[in-house]
Amino acid sequence: MKLKINFKNILLFKRKKLVAIIFIVIMGITFAFVFNNNKLNKQYQNLIKEYNDNISIYNKEVDNLNNFLSKIKEYDLIESKEDFKNKDTKKFNVKKNKLGDIDSLNTDIENITNEITTIKNKYAEACQLSYDTMIENYNCMANRYNTCIKSSSIDFISGMPRKIDVLKTHNINALDASFNEEEYLRELKKIYNDCDDVIACCLVVDQIKVPKKEWILNRLKDIKKINECKAVTSDNDPNELLNKPGGYTSCIYFNIDNENISKVTGNNIIKEGTDCGGAIEVYPTLEAALNRCNYLSGFDDTILYSGSYTIIGTMVIRISYKLSNREQINLTNRIVDAFTTLS
């Protein structure tokens, strides 16, 4: 038996084999393409999620910073022209899964990670700066007060401190896990309120140091039992101390409603002097006011005693001897209250 060789059959067989090979190759390429494309899609989708997760963190940190700046805005501690805004997330786009898009997304992720660090540092910086500024403001007013009371007497003013201690700043580590913003804000508020108290003390000292006669007249008119006030001039000054070396810059006499004091009006108030009620003598320096009190003390327990005398600021408050000791003290206290009330 002989094998029959048919050229046509051989050609047909090889053609079928070639088609099969080509089909296998095409299927392999197709599978590789689909597999690779799915891999890119998966990688791209994962990167989108990573980016959006970072965006969420970034936006949270931005909100944290903006909320803090809003809470301390009333204190006017930080001047910033920067505008911290939230960022938008990215949506998965099946068409954007090429290597170039993935590289770009990786760059975006790196950038947003760096920006998260920057925003966190901005928050920490804002916390430290606001604290340092608050302390600086407080200490500035404390030092001012301590300097002012050296030239203005506060001995007879209730609630005025003899000295205000300055505060020391310290490191505020807002990035530490133990940092508590609520506690920190409470501390800021306390210092702010304390600073308000110091400012009020400074304002009191300012207004009782060499005040204008118009201011004194305005304050005296609202004090109970004081009927009339009049400022001396160079022509009718009984002490001849107005604008003289060591003398007062102004002097206001007043009469009061009291059965032991004869009521006088007009120029008689100045003529009667402190006997009709009392006087406010304003001196240019505390030293001059102290000298005046030292002079008046020479008449204590003598027939020339004219009444009590008290220094507040650079003023000497004089009250008539015709009032009892208790009445003199009470009237002095009312005058001190009127002169140290802020308005």
Question: Would you mind describing this structure in some detail?
Answer:
This protein is an alpha+beta fold. It contains seven helices and five strands. The protein has a five-stranded antiparallel β-sheet with strand order 1-2-3-5-4, with helices on both faces. The radius of gyration is 44 Å and the shape is rod-shaped. Residues 31-36 have low confidence and may be disordered.
Keyphrases for this structure?
343 residues; alpha+beta; five-stranded antiparallel sheet; 7 helices; 5 strands; 53% helix; rod-shaped
Q: Helix segment count?
A: 7
Question: Major β-sheet, in short?
Answer: 5 strands, antiparallel
Name the average pLDDT.
87
The chain-level structural class is: alpha+beta
User: What is the helix content?
Assistant: 40-55%
Summarize the helices and strands and which ones pair or pack:
Blueprint: H1 7-71, H2 99-148, H3 181-207, H4 213-220, E1 226-231, E2 250-256, H5 268-272, E3 277-282, H6 286-297, E4 307-312, E5 315-320, H7 325-340
Antiparallel strand pairs: 1-2, 2-3, 3-5, 4-5
Provide a brief overview of the structure.
The chain has 343 residues and is of the alpha+beta class. It contains 7 helices and 5 strands, in the order H-H-H-H-E-E-H-E-H-E-E-H. A hairpin with a 2-residue loop joins strand 4 (307-312) and strand 5.
